[in-house]
Amino acid sequence: MAEYQSEFNVLLVNTDVDKKRFTKAWLATWIEEGYSKSTDDIIGKYSTFDPYSIDYLLVKNKDVVVGTMRIINQNNAVGLPVLNDFILNHRFNEKDKLCEATLLTVKSSERKVDHSTSLLLLIELWKYVRKNDITGIVIAADIRLWYFLKQKLGLCFTEIGERKMYEGSMTIPGHLSVKEQKDSLMMVTAKNILENVIQQF
Questions:
Q1: Cβ distance 81 to 64 under 8 Å?
Q2: pLDDT more than 90, % of the chain
Q3: Measured between alpha carbons, how far is 68 from 8 in angstroms, rounded to an integer?
Q4: Which of 62, 169, 173, 197 could form a disulfide with 161 if both were Cys (CB 3.0 to 4.6 A apart)?
Q5: Cα distance between residue 39 and residue 183, in whole Å
Q6: Cβ neighbours around 110 below 10 Å, total
Q7: Nearest CA to 26 among 81, 67, 58, 72?
Q8: What average pLDDT does this structure show over 60-82?
Q9: CB 99 within 8 Å of CB 74
Q10: Structure pTM?
Q11: What is the C-alpha separation between 148 and 173, in angstroms, rounded?
Q12: SS3 per-residue string spanning the chain
């Protein structure tokens, strides 16, 4: 992991220039993966959540954007996409403080066998939720991402509603309890790095 941390960096989006790079990068991956063809509609949808979002760039060699992630904070104005767009069978406690992780992308040419580039983004997500006392993370994950998070990384996401075609693929609404994840032991060797971070924060 250390070798990738010297080659790759995760940067917070703070400028208009970085914002354009962020949008260009996640949209390019979505088109590459076949998630979206109508670019204007999807950009318009996600721009609605801009005021409540924290965006990250995964950058290679200090300049080339190869990945993205967005964290949308719970809010009363526009809500969270998962809670808005899916029929849910899960009730959240009024005391729950939620965020949604979305636009998690890594350029196909930069995906590693050990998942290290994706882990760099997920580590930032975990740091953020711990720092901000967030109790739960919600996601809308296609089948591939769901398998990656659940089977490859062993994260404690549970299905919280009906699967449906969503933004170009069959998608699962999921929720992760931060306390449950903190308390659980991840059993698969490939997840040791993320496990160490979870134990630290």
A1: no
A2: 59
A3: 12
A4: 173
A5: 40
A6: 17
A7: 67
A8: 94
A9: yes
A10: 0.87
A11: 15
A12: CHHHHHHEEEEECCCHHHHHHHHHHHHHHHHHHCCCCCHHHHHHHHHCCHHHEEEEEEEECCCEEEEEEEEEECCCCCCCHHHHHCCECCCCCCCCCEEEEEEEEECHHHCCCCCHHHHHHHHHHHHHHHHCCCCEEEEEEEHHHHHHHHHHCCCCEEECECCEEECCEEEEEEEEEHHHHHHCCCCCHHHHHHHHHHHHC
| Nearest CA-CA partner of 138 in 174, 169, 96 | 174
Following CA atoms 154, 130, 46, 114 in sequence, which dihedral angle do they give, to the nearest 10 degrees?
-30
Which residue in this structure is represented by tokens 């260009």?
Answer: 24
Contact indicator for 193, 119 with CB cutoff of 8 Å? yes
Token pair belonging to 103: 């636009």
Residue with tokens 């960096």: 9
Instruction: Please provide the distance, in angstroms rounded to a whole number, between the alpha carbons at the two ends of the chain.
Output: 18
Q: Tell me the average pLDDT across 48-75.
A: 95
Which residue type occupies 120?
L
User: What tokens does 188 get?
Assistant: 């698969």
Q: Up-side HSE of residue 148: CA atoms within 13 Å toward CB?
A: 17
